[in-house]
């Protein structure tokens, strides 16, 4: 019984440590002066956040980068929504040679992401690009990307349904969206986490699957949600009379 009690105590302490670490990473800077802005949350110190997230979430990003690389079509264009200081985008470009664009609401985060990319890649042309932008109002043409990804960001979006609608717009037909976020209902700091599964219904994205994602350690506090923009049927061309041409041959005199 003593061993069982100690095992439960260690498990409880591990869970508390995870909760505290993630709380510091995602929320600590908000309490220290971060603030809400149209579209989401901005943190106070992008440089400090960059260091914290790289050290704490490094293995998390590595596993996700491997998963994204497997899911990405050949010569895919990838958009990371809510890229923060750019650690995942940088790994995707540096380790897997992928064409990645990162977007974040916070100009200071984009400055930090660009600095991180310069340190990681130097003058290498394969490094990702970064732009300031709101996921609910993306400044990209329709059907610009083959894959859209987001990690631990969606629960900070001011309007997740609008964000997913924009994700659908910039995805090419048949394109996918991969979203990692905290699992609803189990995270004490967020009892009302927006579930991508629910918000996808208003975006016309098709649900592919939602599965627990083993992180941190052997715990599954996060989930991986895969969405797709369905292939669209070909449009029939119309004649000047407004009728669709017949497939049958016609006799000519």
How would you describe this structure to a colleague?
The chain has 253 residues and is an alpha/beta fold. It has a domain at 57-228: Vaccinia Virus protein VP39 (Rossmann fold), CATH 3.40.50. 38% of the residues lie in helices and 22% in strands. It contains six helices and nine strands, in the order αββαβαβαββαβαββ. It has helices at residues 2-31, 46-71, 87-96, 107-121, 160-170, 196-199, and strands at 35-37, 40-42, 77-81, 99-104, 129-132, 145-151, 171-182, 206-213, 222-228. A seven-stranded mixed β-sheet has the order 5-4-3-6-7-9-8. It has a two-stranded antiparallel sheet with strand order 1-2. Strand 6, helix 5 and strand 7 (171-182) form a beta-alpha-beta unit. Helix 1 (2-31) crosses helix 2 (46-71) and helix 2 packs across helix 3 (87-96). The longest helix has 30 residues, at 2-31. 38% of the residues are buried. Residues 5-21, 23-33 and 248-253 have low confidence and may be disordered.
């Amino acid at each position: 019984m003593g061993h069982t009690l100690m095992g439960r105590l260690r498990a409880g302490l591990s869970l508390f440590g995870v909760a505290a670490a993630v709380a510091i990473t995602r929320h600590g800077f908000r309490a220290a002066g971060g603030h809400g802005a149209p579209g989401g949350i901005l943190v106070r110190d992008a440089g400090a956040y960059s260091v914290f997230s790289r050290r704490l979430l490094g293995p998390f990003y590595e596993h996700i980068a491997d998963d994204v690389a497997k899911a990405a079509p050949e010569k895919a264009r990838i958009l990371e929504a809510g890229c923060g200081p750019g650690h995942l985008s940088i790994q995707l470009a540096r380790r897997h040679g992928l064409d990645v664009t990162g977007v974040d609401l916070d100009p200071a985060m984009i400055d930090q992401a660009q600095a991180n990319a310069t340190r990681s890649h130097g003058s290498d042309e394969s490094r990702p690009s970064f732009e300031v932008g709101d996921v609910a109002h993306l400044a990209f043409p329709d059907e610009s990307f083959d894959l859209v990804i987001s990690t631990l960001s969606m629960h900070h979006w001011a309007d997740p349904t609008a964000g997913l609608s924009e994700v659908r717009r910039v995805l090419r037909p048949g394109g996918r969206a991969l979203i990692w976020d905290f699992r609803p209902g189990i995270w004490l700091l967020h009892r009302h986490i927006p579930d991508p599964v629910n918000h996808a219904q208003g975006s016309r994205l098709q649900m592919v699957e939602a599965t627990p994602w083993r992180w941190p350690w052997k715990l599954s506090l996060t989930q991986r949600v895969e969405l797709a923009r369905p292939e669209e049927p070909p449009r029939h061309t119309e004649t000047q009379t407004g009728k669709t041409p017949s497939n049958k041959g016609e006799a000519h005199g």
